């Protein structure tokens, strides 16, 4: 270990390890990859007023001769990278690291990356440095450091970074970021707006918990008036990551040294890493040609003299500050490196997940077709599983995805509603309504004419149902029925529609007419059912689309593209329903169902049993005379009952047939079947789209495309950073 002050600063053992070099190189690589857009990186940042001597401090640290009047406002940060290299001559390389704004614009980024300046250290001086600063400003599109406000570009500051790399045998491993200095009064070179922009820029840097703050103060000024320290105090209240630098100690007025020494002794503003007073080249010395090496010698002699000699020798001057900063940065980077690697790994995973949610790239027709085909395949699978009621995960009972369950229940409700609301008038049920009013017993006449004359023209009592709870029956249009009782209606219709047939015979046209009127409500009941199913199908469709298409724009375009076919499918369902109504209502009445005759026979038998039970005597016997009278009906009333039984028997068969057909031919075939609204999105549909249609539906909108480019760029730099960090340097 070399003794303090012995040899040049570049011979310090603490800065020369291969591990340190490798670690700093990895961090530099991270910066080049712009990983700092996503993850903050450990860094040393120099902040202070424009007149604080910040540039002279950097001269001493980097051994770069800064341009004269360099305190004029620069409008971007400068990163100075010192690296030890096996290079006797020493080289300088200047580049621009594009910031967030430039990375969002490929053309701007490309232009900035074209900026490259290389030279030997011997060629690099104040003039060449000034030229680099000016040229970099032009590339970034901001005013040059010495430009007046009037006539300069609207863009006042840039988040791009000018990177100056110096490599040589005499350089330690050190990276410092210099941000524009604070100023307090506007001039022809800088405005009040500039002042606020610089303040915000500094705030952004120092607020980063991985930034070590090199806060610079002019020794001639009161610490309480130093804004940069107020800013540092807010973001680092315990002073854990702030290093205080006091410049221009040689310019402090005699008698004022005690106050500065007290600050430098860490007694006023306590900082974890303490304070370092330095003596820089004055403007006069620069003009007189005092070199950097001479500057170091003058500084060393200065702090040997009273009253500055009272300060701890290891806390004064560049010979102590420079190795301290190198060691501090190294320890800081080393401590943060494992966390950085973890954050980079998480960034890769999260970015890949975000890209996965966007799906594959959709730039070319092939990519767009693949994208839609995948969606269609997933859609078809979900539809099939839902129709089969197959669910891998729990699905809420009310979820639209339970389409099969919902429609099964709706079909059953439809059948029940057809039973209770499908007819215009209620049919008679002798078993439920056995009681009828009776006339006094009369002799049984020998002829039908005599029998009818004795009974009266109607003998309504024989066919009236016992009064039930009041129910107002209406026709299909909602109008109150003239004959709510079905026997009355049959009787009236029969008498109004008699043809040339003999008394007691039934005109089949009358039965057809009655059936049509009795089943007139089927249309409205079935329409309501089909409408409800179509609505349920629409909600199911929307739920599946939401599940398989994450891109809102693509989902809406797909649904719009399929809307016409969806409408046609629903129209076909209603057309099928109308055809079923047409078949049942407008054709002849026909059935081969054996229950048609069986039901009529059963109704006649039931009626006979009821009559027998009504005439059973107290002892259980039957009076044949009373039985005969019970069946002593007129031809008209007999015909009314016969028509009722025929109508009811056929109605039951036809209604069941119709309800089944609605379920199978309308709901299942047209709404759930292969050409139904929930079967339209399939691979065949995608195959049939031309390039123009594909582009219209599947191409990414500007926002999605920008998001994809952003994520791809992030993933690329994160994976590159992952690779750079794969060889852990400790």
Q: What would your notes on this structure say?
A:
Residues 463-473 have a biased composition (Acidic residues). The chain has 730 residues and is of the alpha/beta class. The chain folds into two domains: 9-350, P-loop containing nucleotide triphosphate hydrolases (Rossmann fold); 374-467 and 484-699, no CATH class. 51% of the residues lie in helices and 8% in strands. It is built from 24 helices and nine strands. It has a nine-stranded mixed sheet with strand order 4-3-5-2-6-1-7-8-9, sandwiched between helices. Helix 8 links the parallel strand 8 and strand 9. Helix 13 packs antiparallel against helix 17, helix 16 crosses helix 21 (635-671) and helix 19 packs across helix 21 (635-671). The chain is rod-shaped and about 145 Å long. The protein starts with 17 loop residues before the first helix and ends in a 6-residue tail after the last helix. Mean pLDDT is 83; it is low at 1-15 and 432-470.
Q: What is the structure about, briefly put?
A:
The chain has 730 residues and is an alpha/beta fold. Helix content is 51%, strand content 8%.
What topology does this entry show?
Blueprint: H1 18-32, E1 43-47, H2 54-62, E2 77-84, E3 91-97, H3 100-103, H4 106-113, E4 116-120, H5 126-140, E5 161-168, E6 174-178, H6 192-207, E7 211-218, H7 227-235, E8 242-247, H8 257-264, E9 275-277, H9 283-287, H10 292-302, H11 318-358, H12 365-387, H13 403-421, H14 448-455, H15 486-496, H16 508-518, H17 522-548, H18 552-586, H19 595-614, H20 624-630, H21 635-671, H22 683-687, H23 691-698, H24 702-724
Parallel strand pairs: 1-6, 1-7, 2-5, 7-8, 8-9
Antiparallel strand pairs: 2-6, 3-4, 3-5
Pfam families: Dynamin_M (PF01031), Dynamin_N (PF00350)
Domain GED: 640-730
InterPro entries: Dynamin, Dynamin_GTPase, Dynamin_N, Dynamin_stalk, G_DYNAMIN_dom, GED_dom, P-loop_NTPase
């Amino acid at each position: 270990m070399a003794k303090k002050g012995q040899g040049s600063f570049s011979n310090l053992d603490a800065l020369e390890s291969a591990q340190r070099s490798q670690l700093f190189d990895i961090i530099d690589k991270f910066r080049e990859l712009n990983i700092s857009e996503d993850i903050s990186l450990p860094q040393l940042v120099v902040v202070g007023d424009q007149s604080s001597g910040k540039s002279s401090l950097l001269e001493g640290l980097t051994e770069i001769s800064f341009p004269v009047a360099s305190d004029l406002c620069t409008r971007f940060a400068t990163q100075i990278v010192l690296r030890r290299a096996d290079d006797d001559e020493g080289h300088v390389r200047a580049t621009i690291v594009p910031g967030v704004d430039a990375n969002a614009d490929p053309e701007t980024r490309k232009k900035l990356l074209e900026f490259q300046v290389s030279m030997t250290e011997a060629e690099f001086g104040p003039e060449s440095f000034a030229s680099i600063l000016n040229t970099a400003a032009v590339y970034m599109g901001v005013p040059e450091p010495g430009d007046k406000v009037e006539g300069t570009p609207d863009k006042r500051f840039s988040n791009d970074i000018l990177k100056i790399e110096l490599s040589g045998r005499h350089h330690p491993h050190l990276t410092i970021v210099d941000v524009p200095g604070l100023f307090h009064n506007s001039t022809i070179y800088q405005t009040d707006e500039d002042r606020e922009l610089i303040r915000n820029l500094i705030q952004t840097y120092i607020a980063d918990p991985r930034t070590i703050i090199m806060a610079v103060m002019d020794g001639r000024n009161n610490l309480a008036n130093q804004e940069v320290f107020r800013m540092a105090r807010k973001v680092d209240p315990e002073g854990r990551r702030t290093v205080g630098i006091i410049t221009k100690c040689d310019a402090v007025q005699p008698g004022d040294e005690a106050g500065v020494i007290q600050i430098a002794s860490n007694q006023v503003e306590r900082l974890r890493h303490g304070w370092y007073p330095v003596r820089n080249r004055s403007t006069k010395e620069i003009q007189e040609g005092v070199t950097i090496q001479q500057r170091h010698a003058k500084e060393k002699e200065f702090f040997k003299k009273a009253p500055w000699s009272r300060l701890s020798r290891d806390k004064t001057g560049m010979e102590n500050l420079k190795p301290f900063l190198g060691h501090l940065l190294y320890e800081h980077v080393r401590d943060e490196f494992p966390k950085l690697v973890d954050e980079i790994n998480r960034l890769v995973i999260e970015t890949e997940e975000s890209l996965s949610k966007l799906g594959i790239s959709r730039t070319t027709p092939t990519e767009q077709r693949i994208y839609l085909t995948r969606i269609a395949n997933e859609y078809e699978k979900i539809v099939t599983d839902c129709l089969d009621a197959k669910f891998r995960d729990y699905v809420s009972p009310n979820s639209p995805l339970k389409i099969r369950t919902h429609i099964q229940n709706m079909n059953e409700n439809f059948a029940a509603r057809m039973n209770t609301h499908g007819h215009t008038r209620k049919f008679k049920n002798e078993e439920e309504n056995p009681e009828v009013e009776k006339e006094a017993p009369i002799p049984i006449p020998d002829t039908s004419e005599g029998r009818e004359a004795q009974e009266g023209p109607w003998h309504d009592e024989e066919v009236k149902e016992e009064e039930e709870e009041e129910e107002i029956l209406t026709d299909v249009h909602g109008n109150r029925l003239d004959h709510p009782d079905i026997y009355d209606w049959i009787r009236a219709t029969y008498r109004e529609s008699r043809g040339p047939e003999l008394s007691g015979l039934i005109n089949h046209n009358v039965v057809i007419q009655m059936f049509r009127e009795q089943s007139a409500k089927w249309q409205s009941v079935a329409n309501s059912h089909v409408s409800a199913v179509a609505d349920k199908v629409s909600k199911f469709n929307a739920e599946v689309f939401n599940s398989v298409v994450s891109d809102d724009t693509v989902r809406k375009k797909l649904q719009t593209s399929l809307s016409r076919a969806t409408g046609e499918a629903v129209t076909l369902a209603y057309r099928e329903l109308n055809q079923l109504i047409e078949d049942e209502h407008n054709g002849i009445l026909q059935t081969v169902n054996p229950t048609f005759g069986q039901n009529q026979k059963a109704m006649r038998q039931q009626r006979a049993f009821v009559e027998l039970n009504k005439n059973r005597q107290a002892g259980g016997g039957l009076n044949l005379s009373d039985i005969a009278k019970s069946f002593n009906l007129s031809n008209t009333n007999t015909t009314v009952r016969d028509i009722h039984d025929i109508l009811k028997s056929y109605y039951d068969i036809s209604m069941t047939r119709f309800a089944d057909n609605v379920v199978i031919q309308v709901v299942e075939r047209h709404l759930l079947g292969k050409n139904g609204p929930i079967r339209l999105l399939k691979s065949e549909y995608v195959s049939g789209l031309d390039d123009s249609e594909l582009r219209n539906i599947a191409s990414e909108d500007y926002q999605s495309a920008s998001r994809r480019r952003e994520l791809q760029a992030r993933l690329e730099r994160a994976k590159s950073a992952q690779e750079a960090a794969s060889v852990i340097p400790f």
